[in-house]
UniProtKB/TrEMBL annotation:
Gene3D superfamilies: 3.30.530.20
Protein name: SRPBCC domain-containing protein
Family (UniProt): Belongs to the AHA1 family.
Residue ranges constituting the Activator of Hsp90 ATPase homologue 1/2-like C-terminal domain according to the UniProt record: 28-135
Source species: Lacisediminihabitans profunda
Length: 144
């Protein structure tokens, strides 16, 4: 690890390692956004794969990311393990949607990252992904 000092560092948790989260609000109904995320948008956030939406279902993307579904709540969230083939450890990825005053907020939360460098890399990745996911929708001017 590179300079990890205690739990006061941005993105460092007490017991889940390093984490990162991004979110964006779009002016579209939740059901429309959810259908997109698990349809045409799946390849954007997870990669090209077939995903069975039930606990314990395994997946592998065309880019050799592997994992399994940990939990699934329709129109709300999916939580899964996520590990590229060149990483020695699993991480946990969560995709959520929730109604907002101006539409729907899409959130991506990634935890159990190894260190600050991995967090920094994934923050850039997920910022790019959220930008691509929200591009088909009109973005709200009241982002949080």
């Amino acid at each position: 690890m590179t300079g990890d000092k205690g739990t006061n560092s941005t993105g460092k948790t007490k017991d889940a390692g390093w984490e990162v989260g991004v979110r964006e609000t779009v002016t579209a109904p939740l059901a429309v956004v959810w259908d997109y995320l698990l349809g045409d948008g799946l390849a954007v956030w997870l990669g090209e794969t077939t995903l069975t939406l039930e606990k314990g279902a395994r997946y592998e993307t065309r880019d050799a990311v592997v994992g399994e579904v940990r939990s699934y709540t329709p129109n709300a969230k999916i939580r899964l393990t996520w590990r590229p083939d060149d990483w020695p450890h699993d991480t946990t990825l969560q995709l959520t949607v929730r109604e907002a005053a101006t539409g729907t907020t899409i959130g991506i939360h990634h935890e159990q990252l190894a260190d600050r460098d991995e967090r920094r890399m994934m923050l850039g990745h997920w910022k790019n992904v959220i930008w691509q996911l929200t591009a088909p929708f009109v973005k709200s001017s009241t982002l949080s």
